[in-house]
Predict the 3D structure of the following.
Amino acid sequence: MAELLEVEHILQHKSKHPENPAVGDLLVWHSFERSGEGQSHHLYGVANPEEAIKVINKLANEQVNDESIGWNALGLQVFEDGEWCEWYSDMGQDIDEYQEELEG
């Protein structure tokens, strides 16, 4: 099992993409459904993929034992070519595969 990673700052989410992103900006996306409340979609700005992994792990760990969560999904987006798209490393790995490689 992966070691729990600490995120040193308080996570502040947004519900919409930034209005004027720069090429290369990164956002962790977090979608989930809580019983009786419907679906939620949150975005968290991050500086790099390593910080994204910490944020993703923190969010996942907070929800793993929460029985009110019906489902959740997390990932990393990058702004390029005028739109937000899923982030991939130079080796073609998504954020989950990238984390697995870092953990060896």
About this structure: Residues 26-87 form one domain.
